[in-house]
Design brief:
With 308 residues, the protein is α+β, with helices and mostly antiparallel strands. Helices cover 25% and strands 33% of the residues.
């Protein structure tokens, strides 16, 4: 099975809402779901990560055959509507069932109802703070069940089209499927000419984007980032050079692009293999190694892991 190139990465506060609880919640709601590999914090890098050694660092999980990663990172970043996940449903029964499960201690941003763009749609922020947009779509515009969506607000409002064109030039196997703009008929002076809704592909994966139709401000932050699975140093260098636009945000494989969106450029298969090694000393060495890096250096990771 082909490895998912771009993986949504969700940041949780283990003291309030641990990543493992979130993964259990989501895999109980969606079909074709499972939890996967767990990595744990070590003594190394404790002054940076500030988490209890031996506690869960990351947990891989799959919902609707799509991969996600949950991180116990601490209380530093809060989810907001800037990045949400569209859930494309095929029946009223399905959309109501998922909505009711997500509605536990939630905040409803747009009630589940009929709107001009859909016979049944709603926007909800779940008890962990993650945003979901549920829509009844017949026929479906994509085979992908869950679609990440970028919401450009505040200082970023009006930049959705620029971002879409940028991302589809950076990533291979990409295309713009459609861009619908606010027109005169929408009677919205604030948003006229900006993106009402757009759908595009990066590495064969579907994404959506839209500019805000009203004045609000939900800045992109590290609570949701996108991990790019890289196999070679050349690939890491390529994405790093293309995407990184905020030098002070470069840390441990993380970067921010010119729109404020966070990405992780990482040899994730290699790191996962090292983190699952039964030798504690090797695991500690590789954690200490990547905690000190900005852009990942594969050869140094390998050398430090082996103790050379």
């Amino acid at each position: 099975m082909k490895t998912q190139k771009i993986i949504p990465h969700l940041w949780f506060d283990p003291e309030k809402r641990p990543a493992e609880d979130a993964a259990a919640f989501y895999t109980s709601i969606f079909k074709n779901s499972k939890t996967g590999t767990i990595s744990r914090y070590g003594e190394s890098g404790k002054e940076i990560h500030r988490q209890r050694p031996g506690s869960i660092m990351t947990l891989d999980f799959t919902i609707e055959n799509q991969d996600f990663i949950a991180l116990n990172g601490g209380p530093y970043f809060q989810f907001n509507p800037s990045i949400s996940f569209f859930v494309i449903c095929e029946s009223k029964e399905e959309i109501h069932e998922i909505w009711e499960k997500l509605d536990e201690n939630s905040q409803v941003l747009m009630p589940l109802d009929r709107y001009e763009w859909s016979s049944l749609y709603g926007w909800i922020q779940d008890k962990f703070g993650v945003n979901w947009q549920l829509i009844l779509e017949e026929p479906r515009s994509t085979t992908q069940k869950i679609v990440p969506s970028f919401f450009f607000t505040g200082k970023s409002q009006g930049k959705a089209e620029e971002a879409i064109k940028f991302y589809t030039t950076v990533f291979k196997n990409s295309k713009i499927e459609g861009i619908l703009k606010y027109a005169e008929a929408d009677k919205n002076e604030y948003a006229r000419g900006t993106v009402k809704h757009a759908q595009f592909q990066l590495e064969g994966q579907t994404f959506m984007a839209m500019d805000s139709g009203m004045e609000n401000d939900f800045p992109f932050n590290e609570s949701i980032s996108f991990l790019i699975n890289c196999d070679t140093q050349e690939e890491i260098d390529y994405y790093w050079n293309k995407l990184s636009a905020v030098p002070e945000s470069e840390q441990c494989g993380w970067l921010k692009d010119k729109f404020g969106v966070s990405w992780q450029v990482a040899p994730s298969a290699l790191i996962n293999k090292m983190m699952q090694d039964p030798n504690t000393e090797k695991r500690e060495r590789v954690i200490a190694s990547f905690m000190q890096m900005k852009k990942f250096d594969i050869e140094k990771l390998k050398a430090d892991f082996k103790g050379h």
